[in-house]
Prior knowledge:
253 residues; alpha/beta; 11 helices; 8 strands; 42% helix; binds 1,3-dihydroxyacetonephosphate
Amino acid sequence: MTSAKLVAGNWKMHGTSADLREVQAIADAAHALDGRVEVALCLPATLIHRAAEAVPGFPVGAQDIHMADQGAHTGDVCAAMLHDAGAALTIVGHSERRDAHREDNSCVRAKAEAALRSDLRVILCVGESDGERGSGRAVEVVCGQLDASLPGGEAAAGAVPDSLAIAYEPIWAIGTGKIPTTEDIAEMHRALRQRLLAAYGDAGGQVRILYGGSVKPSNAAEIFAIPDVGGALVGGASLRAADFLPIVEAAAR
Length: 253
Ligand code: 13P
């Protein structure tokens, strides 16, 4: 298990072939950092194959998968297809999917297990709403999400800690420029660590817990210095190498 931080970009519904040059620039810079930080890009499904061919060895990922291994699911893409296209990892349970696609914890858990069955590493997202933070229930809500979404059974055996990362992404911090206080991030990561230890024993102590939500070059170093922040899941600032690489470099220090 590496102790290097993991910095993953989530391009969401952005990016066409013209943007492969950004992928190339990010992969080249990541390679030069020589394992001091692990970098990955979760791209739109349409770019995964071309990106994987363009930057061999650099981890290209998906942003979602279907929970089934195959079947009559018009328009959906399963883990084995993404793996075949060159994906090394996938996000599951992003709040934008939990919300817009009504994905509940059991759906997220099934997706995480499907990903691991097809040799995709998993970044599993959890996070509270503005109202939940305001009412003092953030830790309880997010730990409840984690407990109910964690992969279990055969899929998880052997996959934890290396093939699983958790991303704590407060919904109110995504794309808003707002971030929680250092103390609030530390408190949440501490609580999530306890849940991981309860679920997986010692291996749960080594699962990386990323922070996500308005991570920028200007706040990255401060976020990475918080105890038990094992990296970041970055949205808007991952689209351009010029914005993303200072974040990656902050994690390498
Ligand atoms: P932003 O970095 O744009 O706030 O997005 C965070 C996010 O949702 C990453 O998954």
